[in-house]
Every structure is written in C-alpha cells, then in structure tokens.
Amino acid sequence: MASNLVKEFTEDNFETEVLQRPGMVVVDFWAEWCGPCRRLTPIIEELAEEYAGRITVGKLNVDGAQRIAGQYGILSIPTLAFFVDGKPVDQMVGLHPKDVIKKKIEELIV
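Structure (tokenized):
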C-alpha cells in the first residue's frame, strides 16, 4: 500500500482496529483481482491523508477475510463500510467519486 495512513485490516486485527476503535473507521472491502477496487485505491489514500487524525481508513482484502465479509453482508466489491464506535452505520457499494464519498463521511463523522 502506498500510503502509510491507510491501515491494512485482517481477520486477526479487525476486532481491535475496527470494532474497538473509537470514532469513525472506513473499511474498503476489496480484492487484488478487482479492477474497480484498484481504481478506488488512490481515492482511499487521498481520503486517509485529508482526514488524518479525524478518522481511520483501511482496506480489508476479502480473499483473506471471507468470514468478516460474510458477517457484514459484503456481496460486491468494492464496498466501503462505515463504522462509528465499532458499529456498522452505513455502506457504499461500487466505485464512487471522491466527492460522493467525502459527503458520506461528513454526514456520518462524529
């Protein structure tokens, strides 16, 4: 991952990095083989920089975390899942422009 501000979530750290983290966490459910996911990556990196210190942004590769993807009903990727204080509050499925994602973050930010 190019930006060190974008966390890499896994089945091993999802509990502590997402569910136990206060405030907002944006989880990008993605996979290496997914073209739209790859096109979303630079947007995710820009958002992580813009919101550094205010929210946590990270990626979860569904190929290595099928249990978590299933638990949150992720049927299509990319999917952005928004967690606030460990609770899932919203999702955006598909590739969206940065301004649309920012609007959603602003609606949900604590």
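The two ends are 27 Å apart (CA to CA). The helical segments are 14-19, 35-50, 66-71, 98-108.
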